[in-house]
Amino acid sequence: MSGQFEATAEIDRPVEEVFAFLADGRNDPRFSPRVLRIERVPDAPTGVGTVFRSVVKDAGMKTAREFRITALEAPSGIRWTEVSKNLVTVREGGYDLEPLDGGRTRLRLYNVLEGHGLGRLVAGLALTAARKDGPAFGARIKAAAEAAIPPR
């Protein structure tokens, strides 16, 4: 089974700065309590092919995750795919950013979750949980970006 969830937020910071904040996946622990540890490989500015390696905790279990950046179009979009082998993975994900009046940014995040092997049995539960958390996830991204990026 596979399916998509989305989160949206309107962030009171300029699109270029929100893009830079989100392109550095090492900021993920600021808004995702699942992420216990993360590193960027290579340790250089994010580009197509950059991998973010993390340890996350889901349903009480720790798993290693690797996401590869597949597209990076400043300041409007970032795409990724999960290259790690887990029961449920992100086949495709991304951020879409749109400038708004007053130096604000509209953000849309999406992930397409996919179950593998026994993961097909739990993918629906993971998708339901992600969809339920979507509004709160968007709010956490907004709060983290606004805390990290000084107002103009």
Short description, anyone?
Helices cover 26% and strands 45% of the residues. It has a 7-stranded antiparallel β-sheet, covered by helices on one side. Strand 4 (61-73) and strand 5 (77-82) form a beta hairpin.
Record the SSE blueprint.
Elements: E1 2-11, H1 15-23, E2 35-41, E3 51-58, E4 61-73, E5 77-82, E6 88-100, E7 104-115, H2 119-148
Antiparallel strand pairs: 1-7, 2-3, 3-4, 4-5, 5-6, 6-7
Please, could you describe this protein's structure?
This protein has 152 residues and is α+β, with helices and mostly antiparallel strands. Helix content is 26%, strand content 45%. A seven-stranded antiparallel β-sheet has the order 1-7-6-5-4-3-2, covered by helices on one side. A hairpin with a 3-residue loop joins strand 6 and strand 7. The chain is globular.
